[in-house]
User: Which sequence fits this backbone?
């Protein structure tokens, strides 16, 4: 019985450690710790870096950039087990209340000179060792540019300028209700992935790859496929 009680306590501690973080770049006031909409954080990239397995991140409408210092190596880093949702107005209490169409939430790589793609971030979203517990839902992902050295190993600098996924897990994350627009790479302009993906309600527009996979390049060990 003592062992069983300790087990329940351990499970309870894990559940309590999971959090929802709120992000709203337009928030005024509050302490910006992300604990509620009133105290929403503004820096999405920072919240994503600090999130942990089991956390959710709710993001209000607006355009978000992975850096403020024009570093092309900067990305929105998706941690294992984290689910990130866009399309919120900034008051909702549950995911079903959001409106993705009304509250467009943009992850943009256009960090340098506007409309000059060559100084954009290499890969907007980078997901390393993610798995089926990860979700990206409700975002427009646009203006990544990773036309890098094609002779170097595939990396976020030459592949997957919209989303770059490289994982040791074969069963992959979910990408839902997203628009992948105007991203350019050597391989996999919109998405590069070495794991299978669960994709639903996705739109691709004006993505380009110098070699293959303007929309998606699937680079799984037993299957290579381009879209």
Assistant:
């Amino acid at each position: 019985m003592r062992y069983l009680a300790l087990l329940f306590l351990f499970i309870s501690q894990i559940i309590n450690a999971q959090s929802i973080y709120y992000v709203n770049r337009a928030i005024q006031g509050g302490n910006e710790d992300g604990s509620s909409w009133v105290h929403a954080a503004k820096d999405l990239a920072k919240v994503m870096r600090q999130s942990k397995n089991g956390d959710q991140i709710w993001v209000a409408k607006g355009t978000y950039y992975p850096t403020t210092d024009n570093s092309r190596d900067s990305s929105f880093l998706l941690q294992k087990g984290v689910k990130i949702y866009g399309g919120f107005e900034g008051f909702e209490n549950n995911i079903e209340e959001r409106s993705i169409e009304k509250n467009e939430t943009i992850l943009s790589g256009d960090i340098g000179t506007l409309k000059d793609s060559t100084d954009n971030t290499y890969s907007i979203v980078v997901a390393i060792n993610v798995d089926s517990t990860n979700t990206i839902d409700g975002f427009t992902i646009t203006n990544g540019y990773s036309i890098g050295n094609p002779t170097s190993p595939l990396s976020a600098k030459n592949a997957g300028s919209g989303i770059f996924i490289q994982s040791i897990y074969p069963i992959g994350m979910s990408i839902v209700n997203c628009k992948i627009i105007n991203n350019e790479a050597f391989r996999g302009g919109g998405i590069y992935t070495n794991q299978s993906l669960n994709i639903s309600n996705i739109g691709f527009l004006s993505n380009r790859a110098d070699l293959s996979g303007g929309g998606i390049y699937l680079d799984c060990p037993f299957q290579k496929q381009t879209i």
